[in-house]
Amino acid sequence: MTKVNPLVEYGIRKPLVALSKAPGMDIVRRNFRNKNMAFINGLAITSIIAKDGLGCYMYVNQSLHNDKIPDDKRKFVAALDLANGGLMILMQILMHMTISNKLVQAKMFNKLFGKNFDRAALKTYKKILNKREKFSNVDGKEFHKAMDNIKDSVNEAFSSLTSLVAATIIGKRVIVPFIATPLADKTKAWMCRNDKPVTVDKETVNTYDKDNAPAEKHKKDDVNNKQSSNLLTSIKNKFSHNN
Fold first, then answer.
1. Per residue in 33-66, is it b (16+ CB within 10 Å) or e — as a string?
2. Backbone dihedral region of 24: left (phi > 0), alpha (psi from -120 to 50 degrees) or beta?
3. Cα four-point dihedral sign 27, 30, 32, 38
4. What residues have CB less than 8 Å from 112, skipping those under 6 apart?
5. Phi first, then psi: what are they for 131, rounded to 5°?
6. What distance in Å separates the CA atoms of residue 101 and residue 97, rounded to the nearest whole number?
7. 114-167 pLDDT, tens per residue?
8. What is the pLDDT at residue 229?
9. For bias kind Polar residues, which ranges apply (predicted)?
10. Which of 20, 23, 41, 59 is deepest in the core (most CB within 10 A)?
11. 134 vs 117: CA distance, rounded Å
């Protein structure tokens, strides 16, 4: 008998066996066997949302207890993580519910692939098929049934792909970043609603002078230093002449 690697045995096989016996797995298996794409896509999105939810909790907790972040900035960083995580979860749910809708899927599929399954295209496919000796006796009914199965398979794959792309790329990576940062201030205010005032760390004090641009400020400093230097020189010269 072939010896199984302990890492594979305890890291993959046993967890999968335990998962297969978990409550509710009969429903999952039945829907997979019946190719229920709505259920399969929903399960895929749910697993991504669960992962993002756990990641959000870990990021927020890490930010709140990170000693490298000044005390007065921790809540804002944590609020940004919380806003980002919450929006990712919400946006993925909304995008999935929108894109996976049957009407939306039908319009998108017909727009992209409709011409490949219209009457003219099917006639061309049948002519090409009948030219082959192996399929020369295929009648119209059998051909259209086979093409309907192909169309359904393509539609299922297209539905899964577009749902995942919409949720994980468009919603998560394109829309969320534009909303998360402005929302972080409001999230921080909610998180700090019962907090006592925090002393601002000296490293995070805003030293920018809005009345004087940096170049002008350095120029004024140089002039002041030069004037001070000239004054000291003149005093030294005066005392030298008197001596």
1. eeeebeebbbebbeebbeebeeebeebbeebbee
2. left
3. negative
4. 158
5. -75, -20
6. 6
7. 899 998 998 898 888 888 888 878 888 888 898 999 998 888 888 888 888 888
8. 57
9. 225-243
10. 41
11. 23
pLDDT category at 24 given cuts 50, 70, 90 is: confident
Q: Are 78 and 62 in contact (CB under 8 A)?
A: no
Distance CA 242, CA 186 (A): 70
pLDDT in tens, 36-63: 878 888 888 889 899 999 999 999 999 8
181 to 61, 76, 91: CA distances (angstroms): 18, 10, 15
95-122 per-position pLDDT tens digit:
888 887 888 888 999 999 989 999 899 8
How far is residue 51's CA from residue 48's CA, in Å, rounded to a whole number? Answer: 5
Let me know if 75 is exposed, middle or buried by CB neighbors in 10 A (0-12, 13-18, 19+). Answer: buried
Residue-by-residue DSSP string for the chain: -PPPPHHHIIIIIHHHHHHHTSTTHHHHHHHHHTT-HHHHHHHHHHHHHHHHHHHHHHHHHHHHT-TTS-HHHHHHHHHHHHHHHHHHHHHHHHHHHHHTSHHHHHHHHHHHHGGGSSHHHHHHHHHHHHTSGGGTT--HHHHHHHHHHHHHHHHHHHHHHHHHHIIIIIIIIIIHHHHHHHHHHHHHHHHTTTPPP-PPPGGG-----TTS-HHHHHHHHHHHHHHHHHHHHHHHHHHHHH-
As a whole number, the mean pLDDT across the chain is 79
